[in-house]
DNA sequence: GAGGCGTGGTG
DNA sequence: TCACCAAGCCT
């Protein structure tokens, strides 16, 4: 399978900036931004960041509020704060250089098994077992014959990925990148382009007659949740340059057409003269959002 | 180990 | 239209 995927990858791989001549720091930033966020939205922000903060020390010195603003609308802003903390550790414990091995990468905040393996492989050419959602899906179809991988990563999947990894270090790096790209462009979650697949002939899922998924992926609720409130709060704060009053949050939520959010923030507005109740309500509604506000130097009314 | 965490494009 | 989905991590 290696040669077919490699040939396809050489011809079809996307020309992404972090795949060109790029520092380990640039690779790390890209991997964090790409956690659950599509490439098309990451690319312009990544360009901005690398120009503004070309090395970990530059980024570590920036105020948290600026980090969150620069993060823009990539989503999951806690990733930005964790990367900020990681840059601090890189400066303090690694002399300002991104560590070049899996174990030390894994110890950084916001860096899990996937990101540690990916940075070790793509920034430092290490032979590591990279397993992301694309690779899991390709393995599930190509090797196992199932439409989708299990809901959560299993030990068996890790063992399979380790078994498939080429022994040669340089080939292992190309294999990781190629399988991931195949999952992103051809072997997609919905409507895979099997007609363009370089390993169609060897695919266990095709051989089995493309059976349907054996479970139903469960969606994440959004309307009326704390996350929706946090999203509205963060949208206001990104645009603000000074401490934000709760009234402003409510007005903004209403103006943005978020009736559920405005209703919840309206409760806070009514409670504004009763500080203890306000604190309790805020703690229940926007606990993480408040932590981010505090980290970013913002204040809520007393 | 299941659930929480932002955001916007798309079939 | 509205679920689903996008290079996960942490608790």
TrEMBL record:
CDD domains: ENDO3c. InterPro entries: DNA_glycosylase, Endonuclease-III-like_CS2, Endonuclease3_FeS-loop_motif, Endouclease-III_FeS-bd_BS, HhH-GPD_domain, HhH_base_excis_C, HhH_motif, MIG/MutY. It holds the Pfam family HhH-GPD. Keywords: 4Fe-4S, DNA damage, DNA repair, Glycosidase, Hydrolase, Iron, Iron-sulfur, Metal-binding. It catalyses: Hydrolyzes free adenine bases from 7,8-dihydro-8-oxoguanine:adenine mismatched double-stranded DNA, leaving an apurinic site. Belongs to the Nth/MutY family. This is Adenine DNA glycosylase. It comes from Arthrobacter stackebrandtii.
